[in-house]
Design brief:
protease, hydrolase, signal, Immunoglobulin-like, 21 helices, S8 family serine peptidase, single chain, cell wall, Glucose Oxidase, domain 1
């Protein structure tokens, strides 16, 4: 078996995938100077008194350590590297690819061709049968030998072998199976699209990152581009081939990628089907997939256990393959001119990459095998992921596919611009590897800006432009330009009219795209964004690394400009509107033909082979993307196109052109096509791009299809152990040692292809030379007639000074007639470079292996440039440099191995190491160390290499703190190991400022609150002295605490609070003055506050014991603190309690006059009596009486803030009052901009009856002369839940406020004249109507109109329900309309009614369907369509259902109908649409809706007023009519009022919602900043569960700013929440709160989004809050929702105060 050195394995899946190692030089971590001491004084680093690590281990020591390690069996295990499969042990299943010795069909074809023979179909079948038989024999032998092998794929055409999984312990046994020649890991591969996050790979601990494309985003933006696919068409000469009829007809092209969206309009008629090679097994996918389903991975394929985006930022669902396929073959079925290279090919898709764009090598080999079997002419592989090797299974498969006649085109990767960054399978010697270049791209336009005497003319670079726009027309003429202040935020446009103007905006604060979007919304014509001074970095260039060409996502052109030009224009405009003229007729384009920096470079190893073979445009390519119509039938494809960049995008250009070349030359084989593509390519700037960057050059399609000659470089290739012919367009001289003179000859066979022949010249162009090395041609001139062979000879003299990098590169040009064929050549003289260790870094230099989750691990990264043998990663003890088992200071090792290949690695350090004394693995002890890599080199140049990172501190616990207070000065010391380490490192010139390692601070504590704190600057020996603020030594303690750099913490009290003092008792009334209107009332509350010596306070509501006296009861009365306004005037209320007296001034005014709009708030109960443990829901109604008397009511219960004045007795949550302890207090309801409402609450020991009063109608419409009876009902609910009702209409006292509009007698209301007023009902509990018996005052809004009105009432089918657990019952609301003529109609109004259960743990309700869950008693609150509220009393009996109990019989579906409107007002000529909806509610509560408008019947009572057709009502003339709607048994009547004048539009209220999107989520530990300043009133931040999960994973912190307050939510605050959440923030006036020196700032957390959200009661995580205050004096911070003091002694600074709270709430600062 052949041995594959240095194969890197993923611990479980053995996957080789792409990773870019972080390359921070060690010096950036270790060096100490004044610059990295955070502003502190530099410590002693200038004098270096000791030599630090001045020599590496010698070879003898290395060999001794290797012997010891081998004896101790320490070269395996979780903390070691396993470079080869035979080192893997255990019971885990390992994915492998097994090679067998019988040749495959492709290999046998190549061997025959090399011998000048061919392979017949019969012979090919025989070869295939031999391969299959050998596979069967091998599997039988495995079974006999007990090898657990589970087969995945088998191959016989491009490889003889099998893939599958084998138990790790059986891998070595495979080598004993007859016929097996090679076992390699089944590696993971990825799509080569740029701008993707890096993938992670590796072995168990020490990981080898492979080339990555993660920096391409920045590199690609170096050029602002505007490439379309049709730019490639003309640029590459495609249209000339189309004109000749070559569009790919009859050519079969397979795309091996992520799949395809076959529903895309641009694949109609050409997509012929596909296959799937990605297994959908286990829980990796949500659903299975057929073998012939090559569709893209869809969002619906994602199971619940898989994230939408993985750790690398790749989405589960894919689009890459559709984009690639579009570049090859899109048929142009769109309005944008987007079309593929070969739009008439037969297109096939082989899905080899699945979720997240990754797949296995085994699947790719099987797809290549299938492509050859199915007769594909061309295959496209825009993927890769293996090492830079020509000798792996995927490379062999490509070789054999080419030999079998399948043209194989492969992307090199996106890890440039360095040498050797490409990977397999592009390294296949026979395949066609492709580099990424640029098209000509729109770059800039000349612009002249003028304003008065100001003039500036310069080129401005394009940023983004709308796709498909005519820029010349859009930018023509003289345009207005205006400079926007600030940075172009929405608020910066205030008072500015930018409609039709060019806006000029500075970079900064908000994203470029957001600036463009805001400018668009404001009506701007275009936008220029100029660089900010902070980003200019000392140069004055435009922002050339940003922008994205023409895209669908923008509507106006945008430009970017340098800082100096931008600043000059801003100053020149001087806040005025200037003029700008674009030279739109002369747009400036780039020339294209630049090799993208990201494009991976060759050579391939080990033969120094020239790769890539050829280059093509792959930067900013516009092509097709999927919309997944099969899963989302409503999807449309109008904009199903986007730009992508990468070698993935270049490769399909070559594949498409190869199809056209094959069509034009049907007799050519795969190598003819390859050589034609290479020979005819345009050689790009050789001063910038060598042969390993561009290969033969950039493709020229027409020339490739019609060459005069083809020049074949004749070579051979090792193909899985066999030598095969390799005809190509590059000359490989390979590595050449100059220990002796060198002379190497290669042959080029020139063939005449057009039949003309003639004279040709052969010349050599050397682009890089060395010494006397030269390349010569034996026939510099020749006459071609048919075929000519040229001998090309490399010569170089012996040269012992040759070093790595010495080479000769260039091109051989064969010129004659009108053609030139170019072949690049290369030879390497330097041999292996001197091996070295580079970029050795560690992510943390301070570690604490104590399991607390802080600084518990670090990642070590390094790169070695050459292969090494014995190697160690060891720990060196700085404090004992001559200790350890070998006396060299090394205490043990983290990794030991006998071989390691050149590459970049990473090793997680989690606290375990192996001591050199052989005692076994254990935890790294606390100490000061370096981590060293030391290795013997394979080349011997030099013999030993090494490097280190450090100093590294391992420290598992903090030290101690001591100290004392004298006056206001504190002194003390911190005793910590960091101090000793610092003193040791000073001797090495590596000292640090101790304050960078120990962060100390003090806290002045009053009770539990920190009232003052500041940092402490330590001396280098750990001592400290600091001054304290003025101390109350009786109440204040002083604490010193610190945290070290390893995350360990310590603290100590250095001063305790002093003597005891007496309690201090104060009293306060909640109002100093009252302003009331006649009939209104307000509650006074007296609070007793007791302050204890420890600073804690207790508050008690003593209102019930206080005395209240009115100076004039004719103006206002006061009963138990409830002040009622009787008549206009003034009065004083005197409040007395014990020795406390206070006076409250009351001013009473008349009720508001008609004509003014008023807003009032009322609560359903002003007095509550509850027993301990009882609950009762308060409901608050906002009533708006408009100027015309129209009354609008709104339930605002859920939008207000509540608190209990003394929460010892009760608590309140969203109006739900829960009684806790017997006593008297009040519930305070806070309404922004309005006085608080107080509900008097008495809690008794025994549970109390709950008594409520309701009126039959709260809104009454009657006509003049009509009468309507109002009924009042008293409902009593006992503590046991029993409900009784009685009619108390007769106990009511009734009054119409304006008795000229209507009269009332015992609840019977009679309309007198048209108008609007109110009916006031005082409800008493008996006929004795005294003040003591008054229980409730209810208002009914009364509307009297001249014409008799329809009387609309609503009835509920029941108000009392008893249900068993699990039972469902339907509540049904019927709307009854009685017309003035006496006609009665009914309709089901259930769907227009709102339902909610007071205690939704007992039952839930949806569209009136009640489902019982648990035994108990509660209420269903029903809000009728007219706003009336009815309570249904619900008792649930039985026991909760067990999961295994049988399901109750399914209830029949409930079907209801609803019309979207009850009445309609129209102007003449207007129309409106009625919609009839049928709602089917199933027994499980789910419901479906169906629009049945088309099957309903509509009739107008008066077609002179309005007509109706299919539900569309058209107003014909002024007047009133009715529309009758019927559908089966359902009938509804809609009132229509038509007027001849246009009514003003009512502006919809703005919904203040900020939705946090996925792209707002930052990278690891990044802060998310949300500015809500532009929102009026309360603002809501909505975060989906998916986005929240990403934030928690990324450990993002959130900062929210609004209206003078900043809320800081740390990274762990939301980690226990797994649902959608809403965060509400608001500012409200706090002037009614005594002593308040700030507004009231509120933050609330909710489960859910929208109206369904429910408040989170507790987070128990600290929130940092910073808010504005109006005083510089000390304040206390009160949470008015809980009546708690969250900060007792806070110091405002610069108008703000900072504090922390354990929970959400409403916070106000009160001066102390």
């Amino acid at each position: 078996m052949k041995k594959h050195n240095f194969t890197k394995l993923l611990s479980t899946f053995l996957a080789l995938i792409l990773v870019l190692s972080l390359a921070t030089p060690f010096s950036a971590l270790a060096n100490t100077s004044a610059d990295n001491n955070n502003g502190s004084e530099a410590v002693e680093t200038a004098v270096k008194t000791k030599a630090f690590k001045d020599k590496l281990s010698n070879e003898s020591t290395m060999q001794q350590k290797a012997a010891i390690a081998e004896q101790l069996n320490l070269l395996g295990g979780d903390a070691k590297l396993h470079e080869q499969l035979q080192n893997v042990t255990g019971n885990q299943l390992v994915p492998v690819i097994i090679h067998l010795s019988e040749p495959s069909v492709g290999l046998e074809t190549g061997k025959r061709k090399l011998a000048g023979k061919s392979l017949s179909a019969t012979e090919a079948q025989a070869v295939k049968q031999k391969a299959r038989s050998q596979q069967i024999r091998a599997k039988k032998e495995m079974m006999i030998k007990g090898i657990q092998f589970s087969e995945g794929f088998s191959y016989d055409t491009v490889l003889n072998g099998m893939s599958g999984t084998v138990k790790a312990n059986d891998i070595e046994k495979l080598l004993t199976i007859d016929g097996i020649t090679l076992v390699e890991p089944d590696t993971e591969v990825h799509a080569f699209e740029a701008n993707k996050s890096k993938s992670l790979t590796a072995q168990k601990n020490l990981k080898k990152p492979a080339p990555s494309d993660n920096k391409l985003k920045d590199k690609a933006k170096d050029s602002i581009v505007d490439a379309k696919m049709d730019t490639s068409i003309g640029f590459l000469g495609i249209d000339a081939l189309w004109a000749e009829g070559y569009e790919g007809q009859g050519i079969k092209v397979a795309v091996l990628d992520t799949g395809i969206d076959a529903d895309h309009p641009d694949f109609q008629g050409i997509y012929k089907g596909g296959k799937n090679f990605v297994p959908h097994t286990g829980t990796d996918y949500a659903r299975p997939r057929a073998d012939n389903d090559a569709s893209e991975t869809s969002p619906k394929d994602r199971p619940a256990n898989k994230p939408e985006f993985n750790a690398n930022g790749s989405s589960f669902y894919t689009s890459h393959g559709t984009h690639v396929a579009g570049t090859i073959a899109a048929i142009g079925n769109n309005e944008y001119g987007i079309k593929g290279i070969a739009p008439k090919v037969d297109l096939y898709a082989y899905r080899v990459l699945g979720a997240y764009g990754s797949g296995s090598t085994s699947g790719i080999i099987k797809a290549i095998d299938t492509a050859v079997i199915e007769g594909m002419h061309v295959i496209n592989l825009s993927l890769g992921g293996g090492a830079n090797s020509e000798t792996d299974g995927a490379s062999f498969a490509i070789n054999n596919a080419m030999l079998a006649g399948t043209i194989s085109v492969i992307a090199t990767g996106n890890s440039g611009p360095n040498r050797g960054t490409m990977g397999t399978p592009a390294t296949s010697r026979l395949g066609i590897a492709v580099a990424n270049t640029t098209n000509p791209e729109l770059s800039a336009v000349k612009a002249e800006v003028t304003n008065g005497g100001f003039n500036l003319t310069n080129n401005v670079k394009f940023f983004y432009t709308p796709y498909g726009i005519d820029l010349k027309a859009e930018l023509a003429g003289e345009l207005d330009i205006i400079a926007i202040p600030g940075v172009g935020k929405e608020s910066d446009y205030n008072q500015l009219d930018v409609t039709g103007k060019v806006v000029h905006v500075s970079r900064g604060e908000i994203a470029f795209t957001e600036k463009i979007q805001i400018a668009t919304e404001k009506g701007a014509k275009a936008i220029i964004i100029y660089n900010s001074k902070d980003h200019a970095d000392g140069n004055d260039n435009p922002m050339s690394n940003v922008g994205g060409g023409s895209v669908f996502d923008v509507q106006i052109p945008s430009f970017n400009m340098s800082y100096n030009d931008g600043k000059a224009i801003k100053d020149g405009l001087a806040n005025e509107v200037g003029k700008i003229v674009f030279d739109a007729a002369n747009l400036i384009y780039t020339t294209g033909d630049e090799v993208n920096d990201s494009s991976s470079r060759g050579p391939s190893t080990p033969n120094f082979d020239i790769k890539p073979d050829v280059a093509a445009p792959g930067t900013n390519i516009m092509s097709t993307i999927p919309m997944y119509k099969a899963d989302f039938p409503e999807a449309t494809y109008e904009h199903a196109y986007t730009r992508k960049t990468g070698t993935s995008m270049a490769t399909p250009h070559i594949a498409g052109i190869a199809a056209l070349v094959k069509q034009a030359n049907p007799s050519w084989n795969a190598f003819d096509v390859k050589v034609a593509l290479s020979n005819t390519a345009k050689v790009l700037d050789t001063g910038k791009y060598d042969v390993f960057a561009q290969g033969a050059g950039r493709i020229q399609a027409y020339q490739a299809a019609h060459p005069e000659i083809l020049a074949y470089a004749i070579d051979t290739a090792n193909n899985d152990g066999a030598t095969v012919e390799n005809k190509k367009g590059t000359v490989t001289f390979g590595p050449q040692s100059l220990k002796d003179n060198v002379s190497v000859t290669k042959q080029i066979v020139v063939q005449n292809k057009n039949g003309n022949g003639g004279a040709y010249n052969a010349t050599v162009e050397v682009t890089k030379g060395f010494a006397d090395a030269s390349v010569t041609i034996d026939k510099p001139t020749f006459t071609l007639s048919g075929e000519e062979t040229l001998n090309v000879t490399l010569t170089a003299s012996q040269n012992t000074n040759a070093k790595p990098g010495d080479e000769i590169l260039g091109y051989i040009h064969i010129t004659g007639g009108s053609t030139t064929a170019s072949l690049p050549f290369a030879a390497d003289f330097g041999g292996a470079a001197a091996a070295e260790v580079k970029d050795m870094t560690i992510s943390e230099t301070d570690l604490s292996f104590n399991g607390d989750g802080v600084k518990d691990e670090a990642m070590l990264r390094f790169t070695i440039t050459g292969d090494v043998g014995t190697n160690f990663i060891e720990i060196w003890n700085i404090m004992d440099p001559e200790g350890g088992a070998y006396g060299d200071g090394y205490i043990g090792y983290l990794h030991a191995s006998s071989a390691l290949g050149a590459g970049s690695y990473q090793l997680p350090i989690k606290g375990q190491y192996s001591p050199w004394d052989g005692t076994g693995a254990t935890t790294i002890p606390d100490g000061l160390y370096t981590i060293d890599f030391t290795a013997e080199t394979v080349s011997g140049n030099p013999p030993v290499i090494g490097d280190y990172v450090g100093p590294l501190v391992v420290k598992s616990e903090a030290g101690t703190v001591t100290g004392a207070i004298e006056g206001t000065t504190a002194t003390g010391a911190i005793d910590d190991a960091y101090i000793g380490y610092q003193q040791e490192l000073v001797d090495y010139g590596m000292g640090y400022n101790i304050n960078t390692k120990l962060k100390a601070k003090y806290e002045v504590i009053e009770g539990e609150a920190v009232i003052a704190t500041d940092t402490i600057t330590l001396e280098q020996d750990g001592t400290f002295t600091f001054d304290l603020p003025e101390l109350d030594k009786k109440n204040n303690s002083v604490k010193v605490k610190y945290e070290d750099a390893a995350g360990n913490k310590a603290e100590a009290i250095i001063y305790n609070a002093g003597d005891q003092v007496d309690n201090e008792v104060t009293y306060k009334v909640n109002h100093e003055t009252l302003a009331l209107k006649v009939g209104n009332s307000e509650q006074l509350t007296v609070t007793e506050t007791t302050t204890k010596p420890d600073g804690t306070t207790e508050e008690k509501d003593v209102t019930a014991e206080a005395t209240f006296t009115s100076s004039n009861e004719a103006i206002a009365t006061a009963t138990n603190g409830n002040v009622t306004a009787i008549a206009a005037g003034t009065a004083d209320i005197t409040v007395t309690y014990k020795d406390f007296t206070a006076t409250v001034a009351v001013e009473v005014t008349e009720e508001p006059v008609t004509g003014e709009e008023t807003v009032t708030y009322s609560v359903n109960k002003t007095n509550l009596i509850l027993g301990e443990g009882q609950q009762e829901q308060l409901y608050v109604t906002e009533t708006t009486v408009k100027a015309d008397g129209t009354v609008i009511e709104k339930d605002v219960t859920g939008h207000l803030r509540y608190n209990v004045v003394n929460n010892t007795y009760a608590t309140v949550q969203k109006g739900l009052v829960t009684a806790k302890l017997a006593g008297k207090t009040q519930v305070r309801i806070q309404i922004e901009g309005e006085p608080s409402i107080y509900v008097y609450l008495e809690v008794t020991k025994a549970p109390q009856n709950s008594i409520t009063y309701t009126v039959s109608q709260t809104h009454l419409n009657v006509g003049v002369g009509q009468s309507e009876q109002v009924y009042v009902t008293e409902t009593t609910v006992t503590p046991e839940g029993d409900v009784s009702t009685r009619d108390v209409t007769g106990f009511g006292q009734y009054k119409v406020i304006d008795n000229t509009v209507a009269t009332v007698k015992k609840g019977l209301v009679t309309g007198l004249k048209d108008g609007k007023t109110q009916l006031r009902i005082n409800v008493y509990n008996s006929s004795n109507q005294t003040a003591d018996n008054l229980k409730e005052t209810i208002y009914v809004y009364l509307n009297v109109e001249k014409l008799p009105q329809n009387i609309v009432t609503y009835d509920l089918n029941t108000t009392d329900m008893t249900m068993e657990v699990g039972e469902q019952k339907q509540l049904k609301v019927t709307e009854t309309t009685v017309t003035p003529a006496g006609t009665t109609t009914e309709r089901d109004a259930t769907v227009d009614t709102k339902f909610s259960v007071v205690n939704n743990t007992l039952a839930t309700v949806q569209r009136g369907l009640v489902t019982a869950h648990a035994p108990g008693k509660t209420q269903v609150r029903v809000v009728m369509p007219n706003g009336d509220v009815t309570l249904v009393y619900l008792e649930v009996t039985g026991t909760p259902e067990e999961p295994e109990q049988p399901v109750e019989p399914e209830q029949p579906d409930t079907i209801t109908f609803a019309v979207n409107k009850n009445d309609i007002a129209l102007n003449v000529g207007e129309s409106d649409q009625l919609t009839v909806t049928q709602t089917t509610t199933k027994a499980d509560g789910t419901s479906t809706e169906q629009d049945v408008t088309a099957t309903s019947t509509f009739t107008s009572n008066d077609e002179a007023v309005a007509t109706v057709t299919n539900g569309t009502i058209t107003a014909v003339g002024p007047g009133q009519t009715a529309i009758t709607v019927t559908n089966g048994d359902f009938t509804a009547t809609i009132s229509v009022d038509v007027v001849a004048i246009e009514e003003p539009e009512v502006e919809e209220p703005q919904r203040n919602v900020y939705t946090l999107a996925e792209d707002n989520v930052g990278s690891k530990s990044e802060n998310i900043y949300i500015d809500l300043s532009s929102f009026d009133g309360e603002a809501n931040i909505e975060i989906s569960a998916a986005v929240l999960g990403k934030m928690v994973d990324a450990k993002n912190e959130i900062t929210i700013q609004k209206d003078g307050a900043v809320f800081m939510l740390h990274k762990n605050i939301l980690k226990d929440i797994h649902t959608d959440i809403t965060i509400s923030v608001a500012k409200n006036d706090a002037s009614t709160i005594a002593g308040a020196v700030s507004d009231m700032y509120t933050i609330t957390f909710w489960n859910g989004i929208g109206e369904a959200k429910q408040q989170l009661t507790a987070l128990n995580k600290k929130i940092e809050i910073k808010m504005s205050v109006y005083s510089n004096n000390k304040v206390k911070i009160m949470n008015v929702l809980t009546n708690e003091v969250v900060s007792k002694n806070a110091n405002p600074k610069n108008g703000t105060v900072e504090f922390k709270s354990d929970n959400a709430g409403s916070f106000v600062a009160i001066e102390i």
